[in-house]
Model the fold of this input.
Amino acid sequence: MNFLVNAQLPRRLAYRLRDAGHDVVHTLDLPAGNRTTDEEINELSIRDLRAVITKDTDFVDSFLLLQRPPKLLLVSTGNITNADLEALFVAQIPAIAAAFESYDYLELTRTTLIFHS
Done:
């Protein structure tokens, strides 16, 4: 699966996804880095068929109104250490990849992975 990890999330999440065999880009890897606009992220997600992983709820609005990005994982853990976020995320990578086969919008909380219809 192809993913794009947004600026508010640590680059280590991209590394963990790569370790699990996925094609991943972090916004830091893009020419504008973490200054890449939401519109540019949406365009890249469409062009390269990437699921956007973000904490930015603006992407939820864009997804619900315009189906942009086409696949979205909202990380809604609140304040959490990067180490705890990484551990939580790593434990959910197989479920996330599998869920994106049937769902376009997922949400990761501290306790569960939510499948939005």
